[in-house]
Amino acid sequence: MKFAHIGLSVTELNRAVSFYQQVFNLNPTRIHDEGNQKYAFLINDQGVMITLWQQSDQGFNPQHAGLHHLALTVGSEQELLDVEQRAKAAGAEFVYDGPVAHAEGGASAAIFFRDPDGTRLEVMTPQAPGYKAARTDAPSCGFF
């Protein structure tokens, strides 16, 4: 089994489409923006699909049950740094300053940031040793 796609609720469809295009190089395959039905399907060359649904009047709330964070994997440290630069250019709010290890001494590293609606995002690469963990008492991906 594998994921078919991830669907996210957003407050402003056009803003969200622009963000996910810019940061993740996702291309819209369908945008529907009529009446109260506003949604978009975005996909990349590797088949990662994110669907965006304008069905919320307020941003992400980590206090509500449901999605904790969305994590994506890239193949190299350079790809991770490239995503970081695109996210900064898109105005993303970062949780930590730059890439951090998931745990102290770990080989993987990740960046943690929020989309325009506050949805927590992680982009990681399995092989980028040498980064410090953001904290020692819990995994960096805990967003504590």
Automatic annotation (TrEMBL):
Identify the residues that the record assigns to the VOC domain, covering every copy: 2-126
> Matching InterPro entries, A to Z?
Fosfomycin_Res_Enzymes (IPR051332), Glyas_Bleomycin-R_OHBP_Dase (IPR029068), Glyas_Fos-R_dOase_dom (IPR004360), VOC_core (IPR037523)
SUPFAM superfamilies hit by this protein: Glyoxalase/Bleomycin resistance protein/Dihydroxybiphenyl dioxygenase
Q: What superkingdom does the record give?
A: Bacteria
Q: Name one Pfam family in it.
A: Glyoxalase
State what protein this is by name: VOC domain-containing protein
Look up and give the organism this protein is from: Deinococcus cellulosilyticus (strain DSM 18568 / NBRC 106333 / KACC 11606 / 5516J-15)
